[in-house]
Amino acid sequence: MLLMREGFEASAPRSVAAPLTVAAGGVGAIRALRGQLLRISALEPGAVASLFGFSLADPAVWLSVHHTRVFSNSYLLGSGMRLVSNRRRPMMVLGKDSVKRHDLLLPASTRAFLASRGYQGEGCVEAVRHELSRLGLSVPKLPDPVNLFMHVRLTRAGEILPEPNLTRAGDAITCRVTQDTQFIVSACNTGIEGNDRPAALRLAVAENLSDFARE
Fold first, then answer.
1. If exposure means fewest CB atoms within 10 Å of the residue's CB, which of 15, 38, 146, 202 is most exposed?
2. pTM over 0.90
């Protein structure tokens, strides 16, 4: 039911963004319109996809992990969960999910954070800011991401404990988008133990589930 097009029918054919491969350590951007499906797939084991989203109508409206936690009263991302904006309006709904392990707590990595942990290169924050500049998007702030496929757990004492990433090549999530959105997905080093080996990702948009088979 979550991936049906009910309530999202378009009166005329619409553009569908071309699929995109995001190299390990890189960043990619893809647009999805209201009612379309967004699929994010791991092309290699151990992938983490740090997901950002900005409304095409107003870049001051973004996918907010903070508001999503409050809206859903959960720090766990599960099927049927609505991911909301900083205006507390749904931007997407999680449907199909082969991993079922995602992080809604940790911020994006930065160059300074990575350096402090012995890694080289720029972090997710710098890479996403460069992508925003390339797209000509000016946003009031860079929100924290939804860290898809990242494996961490929260203890009873409140500790966030990284766990070995179990994502396999071919694992994927599929969401129904509920607002016209510019998505940016980072495959950069997270600097989080067990989830710190960047891996390639595939981004694809479709009108219906069956369309993904044609890719």
1. 15
2. yes
